[in-house]
Amino acid sequence: MVRAFIVSIAMVGVGASIAVADGIEPGLWKILARTEVEGVPGPPQQSAKCLTAAQAADVATTFSPVMGTINSECAPIERSLAGGKLTWKLVCKGQLNMVLTGEYNFDTPRHYSATVQNHAEMGGAVVANSKSLLEAEWVSQCP
Length: 143
Known about the structure:
It is built from 3 helices and 9 strands; from the N terminus they run H-E-E-E-H-H-E-E-E-E-E-E. By secondary structure, it is α+β, with helices and mostly antiparallel strands.
């Protein structure tokens, strides 16, 4: 149960993984996610996301995780956006200790790749250890 919660938190960045940085276009994007849990690769998962102009206007918010925890406190998120690259790190401590990192590389106006990593412990035991590799490409204008 905790593992599913942690992975879903990490995937918040995946589901929102489209924004404008150095010319990324708003529109319909196809996202392919390859996730490894405890080093074991899972099947690739494909999704689609329409990026609005409003989402494109706020890269940091669109690509960063939204966190809600019980009995843990999260430090302010560390973020950097420079040269077509967005990186962030979120650290939470308490009942659940977690480090969540993301790195997004916007290499053309219609393509980006990303890595999102999550490591979480509860009571000294690892409850989540995952890495998601994302590839996204622009498909069309939003319907």
